[in-house]
Design a protein that fits this description.
mainly alpha
Length: 277
């Protein structure tokens, strides 16, 4: 059973969230068969975390709830409880239970400050912003979280998740350009941190948001097609009978509209949109 839990945690950190759920499923079954309640609690907590990048919010809440009941019955410390409570609070907020989430976050913040756990405190800050958004102030929550995000952090995955939460808040605030930019930053950071399960989730959110391409003119669409084909600005100008400056001006508008900074980012964003649409 311990081996299955280890496989699940490893898969969640550096592989597939779906495969992690499968390992945790087997671990829960094995633990229940052996009447190992502590092991079942560990497996349930891991499976709850694995459900999040898959969008399985209700399933995550159920697993975290069961894990907490078992831990209380055993009278032992929660398995990495301070960290898991952040994920539990996030699942509750997304599942329509912000008051419970707020209560858990208050307790978790106190423990994290006492134990000096900066990664947990960053997680608390992002989920507090999520709670503020779901209870009626998405713009204020997004602006507050954006101002609080550090350039770098000793827990890069948690920082990447904070950028993803910011993307969700901007979507709720009906600021799609900012949402795309936040999710693009989250995807970049998940990739750099070697976290494919969350990277896949970030790319799915980017694809769902699109690129703003539907609002483009015929000229801009032709330019996008040629950029995807690897043409230089001069080659595009010749092909479309435009000046190089006109091509550059169109690209600048496309960068602004899609919240990208260069041709490579623009091409990547357009490919994601077309694959997702």
């Amino acid at each position: 059973m311990e081996g299955l839990i280890t496989l699940g945690l490893t898969e969640l950190a550096a592989g597939s969230a779906r495969q992690a759920v499968a390992y945790f499923d087997d671990a829960v079954a094995a633990g229940e068969k052996a009447d190992d309640l502590g092991g079942v609690a560990l497996a349930l907590a891991g499976r709850g975390r694995a459900h999040l990048p898959l969008g399985g919010v209700a399933a995550a809440v159920r697993d975290f709830e069961r894990a907490r009941v078992l831990v209380a019955r055993l009278g032992v410390p929660e398995p990495d409880g301070t960290t898991i409570d952040v994920d539990f609070a996030e699942a509750l907020a997304l599942n329509g239970e912000p008051d419970r989430a707020r209560h858990i976050l208050a307790d978790t913040r106190c423990r994290a400050e006492r134990e000096d756990r900066p990664g947990v405190l960053l997680g608390v800050a992002r989920v507090e912003a999520l709670v503020a958004a779901v209870t009626g102030d998405p713009r204020g929550a997004a602006d507050g979280l954006r101002a609080a995000l550090p350039a770098e952090h000793r827990h890069p995955v948690e920082l990447a998740r904070a950028w993803g939460t910011l993307g969700d808040l901007e979507t709720r605030a009906r600021r799609p350009g900012r949402a795309r930019a936040a999710w693009a930053e989250a995807a970049r950071r998940f990739e750099a941190a070697g976290c494919p399960s969350w990277l896949e989730y970030a790319n799915q959110r980017l694809a769902r948001l699109g690129t703003g391409e539907r609002a483009t003119s015929d000229t801009e669409r032709h330019i996008l097609d040629l950029v995807l084909g690897g043409s230089s600005n001069r080659e595009i100008a010749v092909r479309l009978h435009l000046s190089v400056k006109a091509v550059e001006a169109n690209l600048t508008r496309l960068y602004r509209r899609t919240n990208t900074r260069n041709r490579s980012e623009l091409a990547h964003r357009v490919r994601l949109h077309r694959q997702g649409g």
